[in-house]
Amino acid sequence: MSKPMKLSVAAGMLLMLVLLALCPPKSSADVAAWVQAFGSIAAVGAAIWITQANERDYRHRAWKMSTIFTAQLLGYCAELRDTSKRGDTGQIRRAADRLVELIAWGRDIEVHMLPEQQIQAFFEIRATAAATLGRAREINSLLYDYEKAGVFFEDQRALVHDLSIKGFWIPPEGQAPVS
To answer: pTM for the complete prediction?
Structure first.
């Protein structure tokens, strides 16, 4: 629960206690009314807390999934770089198949739950994944320049790395964020 919300609930409870002290209950019906009033304030506070906790969980899940997506993509770019330099088209096809699965999985990430800076970085990272997949699918030709492909995949890996630092790196307290 946020600090302003905690203060509001505390102020409501304090107001209820002051009113209870000024107007003590005279009958069992009055006691029941006061209990209901305290219960209502507590229920509102609990509902607000649960809602905020759920949103925090969704945000954390989106951040976690986007960082896993990014880490996996970094690994696939490095694998494609290494296998293309060796000209191992079978391994490249298998890596491309895994990349297709990763991109499909990445579509399930609730991007709208990420902070604005991370949304932009994640969309750029997903676009890089699509470009990497496109190049990996082109490598089936025997006349393909595997050395150039290796350079391309290294460039893609470096781009994803830079975007992940720009979008997802959380600087230590007092340190300026990367821009």
So the answer is: 0.69
